[in-house]
Amino acid sequence: MAGSRFTPDRGLTTRMVLTMSLLGIVYVAFVIALILVGVHWALVLLVVGGVALVQYFASDRIALYSMGAREVGPEEAPELHAVVDRLCAMADMPKPRVAVADTDVPNAFATGRNEKNAVVCATTGILRRLDRVELEAVLAHELSHVAHRDVMVMTIAGFLGVVAGFLTQMGLRFMAFSGGGGSRNNNNGPSPALVALAVVAISAVVWALSFLLTRMLSRYRELSADRAAAYLTGRPSALGSALTKITGDMGRIPSRDLRQAEPFNAFFFTPAFSRSGFSLSQLFATHPPVEQRLAQLADISRQLGQG
């Protein structure tokens, strides 16, 4: 936040430190547990360390590729760049790279491990639906994530769940391939199948813990970003209008497109939910309820004397 004019949030900082501390404890326990059940320490370090490095240094490129987004220059998207330029000048922060995702799902997100490597991305769906003032409010929300450094924290926090999920899948496939096997091998040690079962159990617990911790942080950081954007632009009503418009139009998006976008909900301005059937994403929400976000923006409007 040094040098940024976004409103600081001690509550967010405290939650980020707490989340990272708890995840650090889970991470160490995870590595120790894998070694104790018989996984070779070199393999543990290779998998865990390799995924951590890829997640940290390539998270921006992975996110853009997964969303089908591409970076655009001022010549290709002059209005979008003009909005980002204005906001960065207002916030006194470095300008991130700018990208556009070709999807009708109206949304925006920011990614990157720091301000120098940050990318802010808008979908073609949101560019078609919002006017300039509303778009400015949404992008201010996304830039506040970069300034508050919670994008970096979410990136780091997410890698533990990625590792746990990967090991769970590998363990299940190994068990299916080996057909279960006995409880011990010829050297009177635990059989590979039993080791795989232990890895699956440990990974599932770690994934659940990391999931809950990141969801708790994710919901608060969205409220924090709404506040920061509203105070920076001085137009909380514009952010409320954009939020109402986007969530209202989400029901018109084909379910297939929404399902493809759901894995990125934690980084989106507002979550993309499939309306068909039950979704765990709705049960363990990445964002606070829209009503809560709108109520907060209404309070800020009254504080700023906008009625």
Descriptive report:
This protein has eleven helices and four strands. Residues 274-279 have low confidence and may be disordered. Helix 3 (78-91) crosses helix 5 and helix 7 packs across helix 8 (236-250). It is 65% helix and 6% strand. The chain has 307 residues and is mainly alpha-helical. It has a four-stranded mixed sheet with strand order 1-2-4-3, with helices on both faces. It is elongated.
Topology:
Blueprint: H1 10-36, H2 41-66, E1 69-71, H3 78-91, E2 97-101, E3 108-111, E4 119-123, H4 124-129, H5 132-148, H6 150-178, H7 192-233, H8 236-250, H9 255-261, H10 280-283, H11 290-303
Parallel strand pairs: 2-4
Antiparallel strand pairs: 1-2, 3-4
Helix pairs in contact: 1-6, 1-7, 2-6, 3-5, 5-7, 5-8, 6-7, 7-8, 7-11, 8-11
List keywords for this structure.
membrane; Protease HtpX homolog; metalloprotease; mainly alpha; 4 strands; zinc; 307 residues; Pept_M48_protease_HtpX
Short structural summary:
The protein has helices spanning 10-36, 41-66, 78-91, 124-129, 132-148, 150-178, 192-233, 236-250, 255-261, 280-283, 290-303; strands spanning 69-71, 97-101, 108-111, 119-123.
> N- to C-terminal separation?
30 Å
Helix content: 55-70%
> Average pLDDT across residues?
82
Output the strand order for the largest sheet.
1-2-4-3
How many separate helices? 11
Topology pattern, helix = H, strand = E: HHEHEEEHHHHHHHH
Give the overall shape.
elongated
Structural class: mainly alpha
- The overall strand count is 4
Largest sheet: 4 strands, mixed
Total tally of structural domains: 1
Query: Radius of gyration, rounded?
Result: 21 Å
Looking at how many chains there are and whether they match, the oligomeric state comes to: single chain
The fraction of residues assigned to DSSP E strands is 5-15%
Enumerate the spans where pLDDT stays under 50 for 5 or more consecutive residues.
274-279
Family: Belongs to the peptidase M48B family.
Subcellular location: Cell membrane
GO molecular function: metalloendopeptidase activity; zinc ion binding
Transmembrane segments: 12-35, 41-58, 151-172, 192-213
